[in-house]
Amino acid sequence: MYHHVKKLMYTVRVDEPDPRFGNMLLEQFGGANGELAAAMQYSIQGLNCDDPDRKDLLMDIGTEELSHLEVVGTLARLHLKPLKFDREAAEADPLIAIAGGGGVNLFNSQGNAWTADYLKITGELDVDLRSNIAAEARAKIVYERLINFCDDAGTKDALQFLMTREITHMRAFAAALDSMGKPRFSIGRIAPTEKLVDQYFNDSTGQGDHGEIDARGPWNQGEPWELVEAPAFQEVRLAPDEGETPGIHAESSDNADSEALLEVLLEELQDLLHAEKQLLKALPKMVKAARTQTLQLLFEKHLLETQEQVERLNECFRILEVPPRAKPCKGMMGLLEEGEEIIKKGEKKDDVPSDLSLIGAAQKVEHYEMSGYLSARNLAQQLHMSAIVQLLSVSLAEEQNADQLLDQVSRTLMSAPTMPAPVV
Q1: Global confidence as pTM
Q2: Cα–Cα distance list, 93 to 10, 35, 57, 112 (Å)
Q3: Quick one: which of 78, 94, 223, 325 has the fewest CB in 10 Å?
């Protein structure tokens, strides 16, 4: 919900309007690095964000950027005002003077229309946060250049305020990224190819016309780098011979490891199969124990998903041409035993505490299954078994989604002003 307060975040003052500078300001109104682009980028990222804490951050800053848009728009309008009645001023920018009536519009300083192509939205929170840090850095530089080209004291004060907030936002996004605890180059879920990820390709070799050199620095020498000279002339190799000039590594493991990896994959699949079959028996009890309808429906939905997950695991065994045999999963047995105790204790509790305890037990199960599917999928990727990777990825995504839905229900229960009505 948005509410317009008839007061600028920073009160602007323009003593000497400058239409040409007003045109420059439009870069921060409707340009690629402007306030509207930032407001839309962060707000849409926020709408897509399943992490409630970082969603709040994105919506807070996205909303502030709308306030900045209002400040920039007011500044630009005041500087462009002479275009409304002064012929000489209007000639400086006929598009604004004639088509826009001397006011602002969603164009950049060159008259190009604003476009959603400016937005960087991937749906991967850590990737989007990195994009946001870069966006704030670019906006800071634009404000800095505007300040350098401005002679009006009041305008410079407003621009200084806006420029400073870009740094504040960079710090907030950087802190949010750090708080996720992910390694700097851990992007997505699929691991990069070992050895290949540490190779630096020297793709511009020889002496240039202007004396350019093949430079060396921390980006291509020292640990963990391996320099590959002129890769266009190298053969792609799976395992270079000892002492041979470094070539492009195509595989992350030797074929000799395949048999051992396959054995580990089979063990993981057998463990998962037994875990899911146990859960099929436990979920109806969890449905019955849930007090609120939302939680009941969530457990019922996951029961159907679990049935499909068992079928996917059976399909994995068929692809591997081995019988679908389950191996006793002691981890799941322990979690479900603990769940039985929570259900019994919940009979003596009120609705909200009972459901919160049940959700806690269910999330432990989800995280156990997520780790199992992730491990099995990574092994299948290493063995280049794309069909199995696809099957396990679908089940992994379902477990992750179930965990997020449980988290949402938990937060709703904890913040509810009154006890939810029990299901009749």
Answers
A1: 0.62
A2: 27, 22, 39, 13
A3: 223
Whether 258-415 and 19-180 are alike in CATH topology: the answer is yes
What is the CATH number assigned to the segment(s) 258-415?
1.20.1260.10
Q: Which two tokens stand for residue 205?
A: 């070799």
Class of residue 181 by CB neighbours under 10 A (exposed 0-12, middle 13-18, buried 19+): exposed
Residues of each annotated binding site for Mn(2+): 35, 65, 68, 136, 169
Q: Are strands 248-249 and 226-229 parallel, antiparallel or unpaired?
A: unpaired
Burial class (CB in 10 A: 0-12, 13-18, 19+), 272: buried
Residues 6+ apart with CB under 8 A from 211: none
Phi, psi of 201 (to 5 degrees): -90, 120
Q: What is the CATH number of domain 19-180?
A: 1.20.1260.10
Annotated binding site for Ca(2+): 56, 60, 211
pLDDT in tens, the chain (424 residues): 889 999 999 999 999 999 889 999 999 999 999 999 999 999 999 999 999 999 999 999 999 999 999 999 999 999 988 877 777 777 677 777 766 677 788 888 888 899 999 999 999 999 999 999 999 999 999 999 999 999 999 999 999 999 999 999 999 999 999 999 888 888 887 778 888 888 898 888 766 666 677 888 999 999 999 888 888 776 554 445 555 566 776 655 444 468 888 999 999 999 999 999 999 999 999 999 999 999 999 999 999 999 999 999 999 999 999 999 998 999 999 999 999 999 999 888 898 999 999 999 999 999 999 999 999 999 998 888 889 999 999 999 999 999 999 999 999 898 866 554 555 4
Cα–Cα distance for residue pair 90/82, rounded to 1 Å: 7
CA distance 143 to 162: 8
Q: Binding site membership: which residues?
A: 35, 56, 60, 65, 68, 136, 169, 211
Indicate the DSSP class of residue 185.
Answer: T
Region for 195 from its dihedrals, namely left if φ exceeds 0, alpha if ψ lies in -120 to 50, beta otherwise: left
Other C-beta atoms within 10 Å of 42: how many?
Answer: 30
Three-state SS for 199? Answer: strand
